[in-house]
Amino acid sequence: TQLLEQSPQFLSIQEGENLTVYCNSSSVFSSLQWYRQEPGEGPVLLVTVVTGGEVKKLKRLTFQFGDARKDSSLHITAAQPGDTGLYLCAGDSGYALNFGKGTSLLVTP
Amino acid sequence: DAGVIQSPRHEVTEMGQEVTLRCKPISGHDYLFWYRQTMMRGLELLIYFNNNVPIDDSGMPEDRFSAKMPNASFSTLKIQPSEPRDSAVYFCASSRGGSSSYEQYFGPGTRLTVT
Fold it and tell me: How many CA atoms lie within 13 A of B24 on its CB side?
C-alpha cells in the first residue's frame, strides 16, 4: 500500500484567511485526486491532477501536483465558512485509490 | 439520478450479531467499491467489483466480512459476527471505470456502532 501523508491534520481559521494543505508520499502516482467530505456525507471529487507540475484552479481553490508526482498541495484563497470540511487526497494505484487520512478544516465567520 | 444509495444510514447492534449493509450503485456504473472510514485509519478500501465480479478483496479485514453483488444494481456487505472494533462509517462508491480517469461517486455512508 502506498501511503499518503496529509498535513496539517486539523486547521481552524477565520473567514477571509488563506491556507495551504499538503499531501505527501514517497511513491510516484500516475494521478492524484482531491476530495471534500462534509459531515454525514460521502467524499465528493474536486479535481484530478495527472501531469507533474500541473496546476488546476477551481474558483478560490488551487491544486498543484509536484514535479515528481509524489506530492500535491491545495491552496484556498479567502476561505469561507462553506469551505469547512474534510479534505482528502487519493493516489491512483491501478484500479484502486489509496486515501490519506485528510485535513479537517474549520472556517469560522 | 439519485446517486449511490446506501441503507441503513445508521445501525446499532450488539457484539456477535450479524450486520448487513446495502448499496445501490448509479445505473450504468461498472465498478462498485466498499470503503470503511475511521478516525484512526482514515478511508480504507475493503473490496471492489467489476461487472458484479469481485476483483480485489485484499482489504477485507478478516473472514467475518463478506461482500456480494448479485446483480448490477445491488451489493451487500455482511459482518458476522460483529465486534466493537468494526464500528465505523462504511461507504459504497461506484464509477464508470476503475482508474482515476473516472470519478468515484460515494454514497452517504452507513454509520455502524457495535456495542
Answer: 7
Partner-chain residue, chosen from B31, B100, B109, that has the shortest CB–CB distance to A33:
B100
Q: Which of residues 29-88 of B touch A (CB under 8 A)?
A: 31, 33, 41-45, 48, 50, 55-56
- Residue written as cell 476503475? B98
Question: Please, which residues bridge with residue A23 across strands?
Answer: A6, A72
Calculate the dihedral angle through the C-alpha atoms of A7, A11, A16, A21, rounding to the nearest 10 degrees: 10
B93 part of contact set with chain A, CB < 8 Å: yes
φ/ψ (deg, to 5) at A52: -55, 130
Q: What is the pLDDT of residues A28-80, one digit of tens each?
A: 888 899 999 999 999 999 999 999 999 999 999 999 999 999 999 999 999 99
Q: What phi, psi does A17 have (nearest 5°)?
A: -80, 160
What CA–CA distance (Å, rounded) separates A80 from A78? 7
Shortest Cα distance from A7 to chain B (angstroms)?
A: 14
pLDDT tens-digit readout, B25-78: 999 999 999 999 999 999 999 999 999 999 999 999 889 999 999 999 999 999
Residues 6+ away with beta carbon under 8 Å from B40: none
Q: For residue B85, which phi and psi values (nearest 5 degrees)?
A: -70, -5
Contact: B103, A31; criterion CB under 8 Å: no
**Is A79 within 8 Å of A26 (Cβ atoms)?**
no
Strand partners, B10: B111
